[in-house]
Write a structure and sequence with these properties.
The complex is a heterodimer of chains A (73) and B (350).
Chain A lengths: L1 H33 L4 H31 L4
Chain B lengths: L1 H15 L4 E4 L21 E3 L4 E4 L2 E5 L2 E5 L2 H6 L3 E4 L2 E4 L7 E2 L4 H25 L11 H21 L9 H17 L12 H17 L3 H8 L9 H48 L1 H45 L9 H6 L5
Antiparallel strand pairs in B: 1-3, 2-3, 4-5, 4-8, 6-7
Classes of the chains: A mainly alpha (73), B mainly alpha (350).
Chain lengths: 73, 350
Amino acid sequence: MGFLAAGLGAGIIALGAGIGIGMIGKSATESIARQPEAAGDIRGAMLLTAVFIEGVALIGAIVCLLLALGVGQ
Amino acid sequence: MIKILRRLTAVCFLLLFISPVVAAADAHTEQESVIDVVGKVSNHDYFELPLGNKLYLPRILLAGGDWFYFSSTKKAVESGLFIESETGLVMADGTAITLDMSITSHLIYVWFGFILTFFITLWAARRYKRGIGTSTEPRGAWHNIFEVLFVFIRDDIAKEFIPHDKFKKFVPYLFTIFMAIAFMNLFGLLPWAAAATANLTVTATLAVITFVLTQINGTKDHWEHVFMFPGVPGWSRFILTPVEFLGLFTKPFALAIRLFANMLSGKIMIVSILGLIFIFTDLFGAFIGIGSGVFWVLLTAALYFLKALVALIQAYVFTLLSAVFIGMAAEEHHHDHDETSVAHAQDVHL
């Protein structure tokens, strides 16, 4: 059961983080296309937001790892 | 001052290598020929050298109220005081070790990272004192690289996220962790070495330093936002205060986990993909195994470049988030209560 939970969890995490980072990338490229002179600032903001999403995803990944390793059983 | 420091480091190194035990890797038996994937990234009691040599590191143990010092794990077992169990060393009579202060391979890489940063900064500072870079332009590739990195940390990270009257105080810290983490991450690219940041204790220590710095430099506004959120209805404070209080700790926690997980996954991924060659050989025979090997090796080479990039990006991200957290705490809010909801929307973290 642990493996099943870990596999499903990892998939859902990848889904959520993928949607989130994709949306950031979409809006960042759109804004850079609209205002190329602000590319530097936008890139910084994009990275910062992507990193926050990555943090949540990684915490989920750690939970999956713990499930797969059977920690706490 | 600098001379004293230099002498101190030299003495530390001499003490470390009082009794170095370099031994060739133990001959592999048939059962041991499986690749130890996790062993490639985990902490060891020996320092791996190129060509399969191992430098056994000293063990410093507190057990049963006494301190023990051995030059290697083998010596500790030979002394008859300790025996090896599944979880590591235990005393001969079965008592567990209270405190293990042994020097391990990851610790050595942490030292390497920080000492390299220390000497590089010292070297650059001496050049600036001589006027190279201040009265003239910086000379030489290394000096230019140093200046690019330093100005990047100062202008793009510290100045941007920490209030302007305070940012100067934090530039040394931010530069130190950036360089040290970058060095530690890049050491992980050497085939025999390991990234010290792939160890949760290392990243947690770094995150705790950031956490302490953040709280020490927190203004009254920072604490007000934690305990008495301004401009919200009274009853919602029952929810907000615990959440904000937890938020204090989830920030450094996420900081530690992020660096750890990224660095851990890198090498495991490389070893796993190379391991596919052997899995394919086992499943479909040597011909397909070797044939697909070309593809896997190319993929590994690509991953290697990605890993070098990730090493620098993660060092940048750690520094950036440290600056953001410190800046958020050190900021003095000058807003009326209508703006708080907007201000807080930008504060959402993790």
